[in-house]
Amino acid sequence: xxxxxxxxxxxxxxxxxxxxxxxxxxxxxxxxxxxxxxxxxxxxxxxxxxxxxxxxxxxxxxxxxxxxxxxxxxxxxxxxxxxxxxxxxxxxxxxxxxxxxxxxxxxxxxxxxxxxxxxxxxxxxxxxxxxxxxxxxxxxxxxxxxxxxxxxxxxxxxxxxxxxxxxxxxxxxxxxxxxxxxxxxxxxxxxxxxxxxxxxxxxxxxxxxxxxxxxxxxxxxxxxxxxxxxxxxxxxxxxxxxxxxxxxxxxxxxxxxxxxxxxxxxxxxxxxxxxxxxxxxxxxxxxxxxxxxxxxxxxxxxxxxxxxxxxxxxxxxxxxxxxxxxxxxxxxxxxxxxxxxxxxxxxxxxxxxxxxxxxxxxxxxxxxxxxxxxxxxxxxxxxxxxxxxxxxxxxxxxxxxxxxxxxxxxxxxxxxxxxxxxxxxxxxxxxxxxxxxxxxxxxxxxxxxxxxxxxxxxxxxxxxxxxxxxxxxxxxxxxxxxxxxxxxxxxxxxxxxxxx
Length: 500
Fold this sequence. Notes:
- It is built from one helix and 37 strands.
- It is mostly beta strands.
- The chain has a seven-stranded antiparallel beta sheet with strand order 1-4-13-6-7-8-9, with no helix packed on it. A seven-stranded antiparallel beta sheet has the order 2-3-14-5-10-11-12, with no helix packed on it.
- A hairpin with a 6-residue loop joins strand 35 (450-458) and strand 36 (465-472).
- Mean pLDDT is 93; it is low at 1-24.
């Protein structure tokens, strides 16, 4: 049995390395000069920083004959293409532009759609329906856009653009037939045949959503564990897997955090890029609610047992061991330790209502802290123990709140039309990071496989700022995910994997 398990883990690690390498360095399979550019283009890839650099010239895009440099691959079905660019690197030539391109072919007059930033700093959505037509252009109402996204969803093409930190603006067209199999890729056009532009593309993601008709919590797509520098927004995929890997809990060790996958918990080591299984005893079906104590000596976990068909909270030694049951009632989902390690706070369903509860780490009687009608979830202590942060929809949509450790003095901190979940406090107690679902998601839900924002806010409230544009949701960052030095966060994004 142990040999078989070891073989499975080694196999998954090998598959993960192949998928990670393919997803990044092999994301594009070809390069081409579209048209007769007089200056040859080029592409380089920085494997460590996961950054693409393209150089290209070309007279322009929009007339019947396009001319630009293109790195591409072929794709079928639906997809989402996203990248961060530096618009200041583009010359002020109105004909210069860079971004994403979808094409039916590599011919100069191919039916196509592009999402780009122009030399004038405009966010431009262009599309050509047939080979004899010029491009039609729509300009999105955003200045200084540096996050560019192009999506195919059925017969719709959707461009999204944002200035880093702000929400997406969107433009959608339908009825542009580009073919079942298309070319997709990044492009650079200098707008000047005698000069070339060099563009850097960061956080490049080719996302394949689940197939239509998938069943949530039964059908899963692949996972990327990402580590992001909070100050710069630079992200790096450190692990990829074809199954559902969820929620890095990163609190004590700069190099190791805990993840869950297929009912088991693993230590993931950034130095080796490998997960190592944690022994959890009778807790045989662990979900994504697991948190290391502030002193790093123990973990709280949520799991079902053979006897319980609903989530129960347990404690185990930090490095694994026999699980000790804490909560007598189910379902209970663990979210946070008190700084002194004496208490655990969690979300639980009692009397058909979601509430926040506290219990001694030794077990006993639970205490209701927030059980207003509706949703109360995701509780987490601040490092100084003065507050418990949580999310609640008591005022309408799910918003970020805080309260005293005894449940008194509830205070709402976010006020917008997004549904905000799972606040996590930085180690220095100055910031809170949380995940925001779009208004279309009901306030009481945090589903898989949605376009979400990760946002940062001062600890006492204020205008949240987007620090990551992510395809994910459930399992992205349900538990504390700051690095011990407070400079990075870890989270999970999702995509089905390309057929390489």
